[in-house]
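Retry 2 of 3 after timeout on previous attempt. Resubmitting structure tokens to design endpoint.
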């Protein structure tokens, strides 16, 4: 029922999911704990308490469970939790899941599920125009959602975008703000990712990358800070197998199992040991055996082949799990997490899905997006309580 990695369409991005999917991003696992009256805690078992897919938006998260149900938690001001309410939830709520959901995607305040392996799409929350356009899509292989625009990769290998962003209006057609418009000169696309105001695509043939949209921090990777209305090649970059986009930075996983990033770097989110913006791909320091990367608004994480995690960048909510609020310019290990199968980032929140279907989250938690029943900052991973 699962596919490839999800691009992070977290923060806006939302996010990227990882692991079995292509981009952005996201992977969650859930270990539910039920408290007995005597204070004895017992873990819930069964497919209804084991996550099979994960997606993070800016401040909410959703998990597709092994029994086919969907559970969401966190901020709910736009109905992004799908429970027909606008109340924030510090623990997952069970929603009436669309039938035959195969994969979840989230970004900003929107959540989507592909149905029947992408034949149809069901979305909720977010801007009405974004959701309405997405609900009309068919034969979708991947969705990438930002706060104000979204893109879809179709099974045929083409890409369409819509919403109020340079990334959506790549053809200069204002109608693209209302309905999906094909992105020109893009065929045989393997994966896509969207940031706050930019988008990128990986081509199947050689693993090269094309990006478009805003470029004030060099997030398009073409060596300039010039905005691009059409997909523009990232020079000297081949062999990309996975991509993710953050607020204004972009990272890729390469066939040699290394990672490179470019764009904004004021929090150290490029992981190269500096805080200098990079306008072209720059290798992430001290990082090997990379399986996938996921990005948030100003922080980044990587899942390694051994199932452990490394994170770097912004640390204002303890998302670096190092006991401080000091930003990190190079990757650091997230302690106590092993067998991670999927990774997803939001605005200061990180969630990981483990091999046993449990989900752990940490970092920002003011809306309950860590899913453990609290609204306190979580500097160490906590188990999502189904």
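Retry 2 succeeded. Sequence:
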């Amino acid at each position: 029922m699962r596919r490839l990695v999800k691009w992070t369409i977290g923060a806006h991005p939302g996010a990227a999911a990882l692991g079995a999917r292509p981009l952005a991003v996201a992977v969650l696992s859930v270990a539910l704990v039920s408290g007995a009256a005597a204070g004895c805690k017992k873990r819930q078992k069964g497919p209804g308490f084991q996550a099979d897919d994960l997606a993070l938006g800016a401040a909410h998260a959703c998990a597709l469970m092994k029994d086919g149900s969907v559970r969401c938690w966190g901020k709910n001001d736009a109905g992004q939790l799908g429970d027909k309410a606008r109340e924030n939830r510090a623990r997952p709520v069970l929603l009436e899941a669309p039938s035959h959901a195969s994969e979840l995607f989230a970004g900003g305040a929107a959540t989507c599920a592909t149905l029947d392996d992408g034949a149809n799409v069901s979305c909720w929350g977010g801007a009405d125009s974004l959701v309405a356009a997405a609900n009309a899509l068919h034969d979708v292989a991947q969705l990438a959602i930002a706060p104000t625009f979204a893109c879809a990769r179709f099974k045929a290998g083409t890409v369409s975008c819509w919403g109020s962003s340079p990334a959506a209006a790549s053809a200069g057609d204002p109608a693209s703000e209302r309905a999906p418009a094909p992105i020109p000169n893009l065929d045989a696309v393997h994966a896509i990712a969207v940031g706050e105001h930019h988008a990128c695509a990986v081509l199947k043939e050689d693993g090269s990358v094309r990006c478009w949209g805003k470029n004030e921090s060099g997030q398009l990777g073409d060596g300039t800070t010039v905005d691009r209305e059409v997909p523009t090649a990232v020079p000297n970059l081949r062999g990309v197998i996975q991509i993710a986009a953050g607020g204004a930075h972009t990272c890729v996983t390469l066939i040699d199992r290394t990672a490179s990033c470019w764009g904004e770097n004021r929090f150290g989110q490029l992981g190269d040991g500096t805080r200098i913006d990079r306008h072209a791909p720059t290798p992430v320091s001290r990082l090997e055996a990379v399986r996938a990367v996921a990005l948030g608004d100003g922080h980044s994480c990587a899942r390694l082949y051994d199932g452990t995690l490394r994170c770097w960048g912004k640390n204002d909510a303890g998302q670096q799990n190092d006991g401080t609020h000091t930003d990190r310019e190079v990757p650091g290990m997230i302690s106590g997490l092993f067998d991670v199968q999927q990774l997803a980032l939001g605005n200061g929140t990180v969630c990981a899905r483990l091999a046993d279907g449990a989900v752990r989250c940490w970092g920002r938690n003011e809306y309950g997006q860590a899913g453990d029943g609290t609204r306190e900052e979580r500097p160490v991973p906590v188990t999502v309580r189904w």
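Attempt log closed. Residues 253 and 259 are 5 Å apart (CA to CA).
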